[in-house]
Design a protein that fits this description.
heterodimer, A: mainly alpha, Helix Hairpins, B: globular
């Protein structure tokens, strides 16, 4: 069995449904939890859902540009996590918790 | 056969993602998200995206999640001290997440009949990926270097004690 038929054995619709599930779980976690670190992990879940969808389309189209975009998404996610966790460490130093309900100074 | 493998991997992915957002202890959440990323790497292998599978394991499960664990240890957050939201808000969050799922599924259901045209199974091999990355996308690749440099400077500046 060559690789092309092997990739085609799983229909593209399955990957789309799986990605939508992962993205919805990420959104749900974002709305459900107050811990800022878990909110960050929900963002990572959403990014991974997009990555999975992009790799699936790229593999089915036979175009490697989609996978290069996934590579860039991973790079940006790494940078975002580094900055976000630095901000969280600073917030924790100033207010003693990472509860996002304490971050309401900009609210009026 | 591969379809069953896909279903098993998908069950692991979705289950671990659900456990991530529902477990009380943040350390368990990080461990479950690492399991999710490993199963997504399995999906990448199933799609013959070998380079991205390796990068997923090394960068996501290896570097990013270890960074999460390090910050959890550094801030001493391994107990669940989180004040839980009111029940109404929890139900509203679940319902809106489920509704988003339904809307996305419905929007894809009507307009999706993708016949895979000109399938080449070798798009994810390192050779083709490197060719695309270093010819067509050379400028974004260089820009990420600047992005990482500014990220490093920003992280150091943010966490420095005054």
């Amino acid at each position: 069995m060559d690789i092309t038929t092997a990739v085609q054995q799983v229909p593209l619709n399955n990957y789309i449904v799986l990605s939508i599930m992962l993205f919805s779980i990420g959104v749900m976690g974002m709305l459900l939890r107050r811990n800022a670190i878990i909110a960050f992990m929900s963002i990572e879940l959403m990014l991974n859902a997009v990555n999975l969808l992009m790799v699936a389309f790229s593999a089915f189209k036979g175009d490697s540009s989609g996978q290069v975009f996934v590579f860039f998404i991973m790079v940006v996610a790494a940078a975002e996590v580094a900055i976000g966790l630095a901000i969280l460490a600073m917030v924790h130093r100033n207010s003693g918790s990472v509860d996002i309900n304490h971050l309401n100074k900009l609210k009026w | 056969m591969l379809l069953y493998l896909f279903y098993i991997l998908s069950a692991i992915t979705v289950g671990c993602a659900l456990l991530t957002i529902f477990s009380k202890n943040p350390v368990y959440s990080v461990l479950f998200v690492i399991a999710t990323f490993f199963s997504i790497a399995g999906h990448f292998i199933l799609l013959n995206a070998q380079f991205l599978a390796i990068v997923q394991v090394i960068v996501y499960a290896g570097a990013i999640m270890v960074l999460f664990l390090t910050v959890l240890m550094y801030l001493n957050l391994n107990k669940s001290v989180e004040s839980s939201k009111p029940l109404l808000i929890k139900i509203a969050a679940m319902v809106s997440g489920g509704l988003l799922f339904l809307v996305l599924i419905a929007s894809f259901k009507s307009g999706l009949s993708i016949a895979p045209t000109s399938v080449r199974g070798d798009a994810g091999l390192i050779k083709n990926l490197g060719n695309t990355l270093f010819t067509e996308y050379l400028f974004p690749f260089e820009a990420t270097a600047v992005l990482f440099l500014s990220t490093m400077a920003g992280a150091i500046t943010l966490t420095r004690k005054k």
